[in-house]
Amino acid sequence: MKSHLLAFLLVVFSFGFPSMAQENDTTEQESNIEVYDFILLSSRYQNAFNFLGRDFGTDIDLVSSDLMYYFNSGIYFNISAIKFLQEGLPWQYGGTLGYNKDLGAKTDINLSYSQFLIDGQSEVTGIQDLGFAQATFGWEWGFLYSTIQFQTLFNERTDYFINSSHSRYFEFDQKLFKKITISFEPKFTLMSGTSEFYRMGGFDLTVEDTSSFQNFQLLNWEAMLPITFGIGYWDLEFQARYINPLNLPSFDESNNRFIFGFQLSYAIPIKKTKSK
């Protein structure tokens, strides 16, 4: 029964692209500039699922595909399809609407809301209609790029989470075969929050178990190293993550573990003209 907890795994892909501008070779160059929207197509494989750092004692891989449209204004929307590679688990579909903006030379903000739906019936009640909102503030303060993220999971009961992430981006531009750009960004994340989501997992819960679900506590920490190979508008990313769940209740058999995956993405630029 607990394996069906997979169905509420929330996979949100948020990609930001810097706007690109160049001068027109016409007499209108003083009043108009060229900018770009992007369409992003991506597919991902991951050798094991996790939700809030928890695998619930299962070992099930998954694949997903995404289609995103990113406006030069910073508004974006994304639709996704997720398939867990175990018989009997339904497809999950998601839609995300978000906004990304630089607040200054070293700060940025990202706001988004995602809605997830299940294809067909599930033995677990309450997972067919999930909402997930998040607000992220980022600060490039020199040695590291740090973010603090506030998240809310909407269901029959509501959960609240706070993440703190710290990373550093490295890039070697067109160093491989003089064509391929290699980049990597080691990251450490610490998450805390409530645990009402356990009510959806089909566990045999006691009054003592449920009384602790509203407690705000550390949920997990993880270390991640993605390595990306880019050529033109293509990106191939390999990712390794070590996840350590914290403050597990007695009925949750989640393990600390490595998770591996890769993703292939293609960005399609759409040139537009706007007034200065």
Give an overview in words.
Helices cover 2% and strands 55% of the residues. With 276 residues, the protein is mainly beta. Strand 9 (170-176) and strand 10 form a beta hairpin. Residues 1-28 have low confidence and may be disordered.
Report the biggest beta sheet as strand number plus sense, adding barrel if it closes. Answer: 12 strands, antiparallel, barrel
Query: Beta-strand percentage?
Result: over 45%
Could you say which structural class the secondary elements and strand pairing correspond to? mainly beta
- Order of helices and strands, N to C? EEEEEEEEEEEHEEE
Give the oligomer, counting copies of the same chain as homo and different chains as hetero.
single chain
Brief write-up:
This protein has 276 residues and is mostly beta strands.
Secondary structure: elements and pairs:
Elements: E1 32-46, E2 62-70, E3 75-84, E4 92-102, E5 107-118, E6 130-140, E7 145-154, E8 159-167, E9 170-176, E10 180-184, E11 187-193, H1 207-211, E12 217-231, E13 234-245, E14 257-275
Antiparallel strand pairs: 1-2, 1-14, 2-3, 3-4, 4-5, 5-6, 6-7, 7-8, 8-11, 9-10, 10-12, 11-12, 12-13, 13-14
Question: Which labels suit this protein?
Answer:
disordered N terminus, 12-stranded antiparallel beta barrel, 276 residues, mainly beta, 1 helix
